[in-house]
Structure formats: C-alpha cells, structure tokens
Amino acid sequence: MNDKPDDTTPPEGDRPDQDRPPVPGSGREGLSPVPFPQDKAAPQDPDTADDVSDLGEGPDAGYSVEKQIDLSEKSYSQGQLVRRRFLRHRGAMVSLIGLLAITVFAFTSIGYGVIPGWWGKNYWEGALVENQGRPTLGLWPPAWGEHPFGQDNAGKDYFALTMRGTQRSLIVAFTVGLVSTVIGVVIGAIAGYYRGWLEAILMRITDLFIVIPALVLAAVFGKMANGGIWPLAFLLSVIGWTSLARLVRGEVLSLREREFVTAAEAIGTGSGRIIFKHILPNTIGTIIVSATLAIAATILTESALSFLGWGVRPPDTSLGLLISTYQTSFQSRPWLFWWPGMIILAIALSVNFLGDGLRDAFDPRQNRTAD
After folding, report:
1. Which CATH architecture has domain 157-362?
2. Where is region (Disordered) located (predicted)?
C-alpha cells in the first residue's frame, strides 16, 4: 500500500470548500457569534430598548436616542429664519450700520424742518474764510474743529452743506425706490397672472418707457419739477419701474402654473388674494434686489441731473449739485469735491450690499449663509 499522499489532492488553501459561503456562527465569516463587550449592556428585548440608560462615554457606553438628537433645538418661524440669515451676513450688517450712520448723521446734525440739530452752523449763511477754507478734521491726533469739512468760497460751513445735500439725495433715492417698486410689482403681477390682452397692453407701455433713454426722460421730468425735491422724486419714479415689472411678470408666469396656485383657485380664492398672498411672497428675493438697485441707481441719477442743472437747484443743494458747483476747485481745494463724492459712493455701495444680504435671507434657494 502506498501511503504517499495523492498528488491530485489540492492544498489546504485551494480546497473547493474554501470557496463556499462561510457557515454562520462558524467564526470564519468575519463576525463573531460572541457579543462584543460594549454590546452586553444593550437589552435584547425590543420593549425595553428605550429604557437604555446613559452609561457614560467609551466602549462600554450604551446607545441612547437622546445622545443622537439635540432635544434643546427648537423650530423657527419664517420670520425668525429670515432674521437669522440676515444677521449672519457680514457684508449686509456692515452696510446697514454704515447707511444708518450716514442717515442719522445727516438728519440730526443740521436738523430737518422744525426739528433743530446739534450742529451750531447752517448751510446758507456765509462767514469769514479761515485758513483758506481748509478742513479742521484730523485723524491723529483726533480733532473736529470749527469747520471739519472746510469752507466754500463764500465762507459757508461745508459740513452743513454736505449734510443738507445728503438729506436731499437720500429723500429722492428712497422715495423713488419705494414708489417705483410698488408700480413695477403691481404692473408685473397683473400682466403675468391675467395674461391675454391686458398683458399685451401693459408690456407695450413698459417697452415704450424702456426704449426712450432714461437720462432724457429724467432731464424732462427734472425740468418739470422746477427744482422741487418731492416733485422730482415722484417724477423720477415714473421711469424706474420698467425693469422690475418685466422681472416680476416672468416670475409670476412661472409661479401661476404651480400646484399651490391651482389648489387656491380650486377652492374659490379670489385673484387678488392669490397674487398678493400666494404668488408675490415667492418673488420677494427678486423684488428686494431690484428695489435696492433702484435706490442705488437713483442716487447716481439725481447726482447727474443736479450736476447738469436739471435736478435740485440753489438755494437748496444736493450731493450732485455740490460736485457740479465745485468741480473747478478739484486742483486747488479738492476737499470740496471729495466729501460729497465719497458720501455718494458710500451710500451706493451700502445699498447694494444690503440688498445682497436681504436677497440671501429671504430666498430659501440661497445657501451662502448658514441657517
């Protein structure tokens, strides 16, 4: 008898049974049938699974639902979410603080109407020109002085003049922004929801205002206002609504086909309520961005009109009129040109960044800021 092993017998590692699925509980499937030490404290009865106590940290700690869910976290309303998003937008917060500072400084320093201000000088009385009208404002060492922004050719306090011009420019800009936004939203919403012949008429009127150069219309309306600040603001509103109307119309055309609008119509909700309660709140991001752009553009338009002599007129003043009046002093006394110019730039940038932050806060599709 030959006791030599058969050469046809496969080696230990090459046996066919090695390719068979491991038998559960054999210890060869990679899962030990013996529970791990950290699992021995876990109850096996499903009815007592919620009674697991917190055994502390480490491998011997039991599983706890309370550890996985923060029970202290609360839900927020839509208004609270908007506020949280806006407050976390750094650019918007810095811009808001800057714009509020400029507005408060302009209206409290020299007063407005019958309300007196804390600054002792006014913008219409001249005086003796001191030190060639140079500004007395100093950064280091800090100094305010008698005329922080200097004096003009007639000895008027240029700080008071600049604050008066800032008041008039802000009034025109925010009035135009508000009125033109209302006009554009109403016309765009009506045209997008009703469509048909009404949409055709409203959009052709919009196209008529668009094809005429805005500066030409602004110049005509500026002449009609005859230097009055409120007539100028309302007349400029007539040319500032066209772009927003087209944007809102496009949004409404898309939203009116959504299921929530169909459901509202099915239960008999009126058209006005559908437009203003269901559709327009979903376009708030577009509306806010367009409104802020309109405010920033109006600041520049009013400055251009006053620069050309078709806006605010003496004895009143505005930031654009100050730049126009003292443009020849750019080489000899540049502070007469730079102060109103820097304030125009600061207002325009602040409004733009503020609109960007409001858009991110109101529009849930924006993910730039954390909730």
Report:
1. Orthogonal Bundle (1.10)
2. 1-64
